[in-house]
Write a structure and sequence with these properties.
The protein has about 325 residues and is of the alpha+beta class. Helix content is about 40%, strand content about 25%. The N and C termini lie close together (about 5 Å). It binds ligand DP6.
Length: about 325
């Protein structure tokens, strides 16, 4: 009997960044991270294991996956097959309602939705922590998208065998927002996995980043527990700039900012000087994500929308955990 399962997960934005891995076979982050799951964007993924397929079939946003994309999906499915004692291949269909591969965390929501849909389709009754650990092995930020609100992911050690993200309880209701400022629809030049490998191998600031990231994470975590927007925003900006400074010092340098990125950052700072608490953070791409109170978000977004070079601004509140949408049994 074939079971088709459909799951939805939301991207997350790290406010204390993950950048760098420890040695080990299962994709372990070198630093702890803290993120907010976004309600306004989502990935929906369907998985069905069935006889008659000689390889996994993967469709992303209506097109066949590239070999590299399909390889990452099959690696996750292989772990699921091993746990479930299954030998059949699967078809996977996934779609984002936001631009893919442009620094908008599509791998986070993508692998979270895939991990949840695949384990359910294979008949595994796993709790969220186990699904998060599975998602983390495909993409560490995906571990965080299994949960809603504000979420932490600890650093791993070379001998870590299980590492799941953990939600900070009750934070979905915190009235804050992240305005996602899209400055280009072009895919990013160097993805996170390659970018952090290159940074670790060549940046003279890497050791300092890893050491300092722990302090920034702890400040961000305490700020969320205290619902202190100013303390969280300050720690988040410092984390983003420390990560980018470390990547910019790599050889050759990794520069993810565009001129529009810098003008948006400057505009956020000028809003803050004028009395609106708003804070910028950037990932492995030129987009800027701006943290503010929920009450200020519409005004912050409308100011940023007017800026030259800004394509679109999406306002997101803390979002829900990943969830199973549909299970269809067939024969
Ligand atoms: C800059 O989770 O995409 O967005 O584990 O290699 O798949 P892999 O990396 P990924 O890296 C995300 C990096 C970041 C910061 C963050 O989300 O914490």
């Amino acid at each position: 009997m074939t079971q088709v399962t459909c799951a939805t997960a939301h991207p997350n934005i790290a406010l204390a960044k993950y950048w760098g891995k420890v040695d080990g076979p299962t994709n372990l982050p070198a630093v702890p991270s803290l993120s907010m799951t976004l309600d306004a964007m989502s990935t929906t993924t369907s998985v069905g294991f069935g006889p008659g397929l000689d390889s996994d079939r993967v469709v992303i946003n209506g097109r066949s996956a590239t070999e590299a994309e399909a390889g990452r999906v099959s690696a996750l499915l292989d772990r699921v097959r091993k746990e479930a004692g299954l030998r059949t291949r699967a078809w996977v269909e996934t779609a984002n309602d936001f631009p893919t591969g442009s620094g908008l965390a599509s791998s986070a929501s993508g692998f979270a939705a895939l991990a949840l849909a695949a384990t359910k389709a294979a008949g595994l009754e796993w709790d969220a922590a186990r699904v998060s650990d599975l998602a983390r092995q495909a993409s560490a930020s995906a571990a965080r998208s299994i949960f809603g609100g504000f979420v932490t992911l600890a650093a791993g050690a070379p001998d870590t065998i299980f590492l799941a993200a953990e939600p900070l309880e009750g934070t979905v209701e915190w009235p804050v927002a992240i305005s996602v400022v899209i400055t280009t629809y072009e895919p990013k030049a160097v993805g996170s996995t390659d970018g952090m490998r290159h940074t670790r191998a060549t940046s003279p600031y890497y050791a300092a980043w890893v050491e300092h990231a722990e302090t920034l994470f702890e400040r961000a975590r305490i700020a969320v527990l205290a619902r202190d927007l100013e303390a969280l925003g300050t720690a988040a900006e410092e984390s983003a700039f420390a990560m980018h400074a470390c990547a910019m010092a790599a050889a050759p340098p990794l520069v993810y900012f565009s001129p529009v990125t810098l003008s948006v950052i400057e505009r956020v700072r000028s809003m803050r000087r004028a009395g609106t608490p708003a804070y910028a953070t950037m990932d492995a791409g030129p987009q800027v994500k701006v943290l503010s109170s929920a009450a200020d978000a519409a005004r912050v977004a409308s100011i940023l929308r007017e800026m030259p070079g800004v394509e679109k601004v999406i306002v997101a509140r803390p979002g829900p955990p990943a969830s199973v949408k549909l299970i269809r049994k067939g024969s």
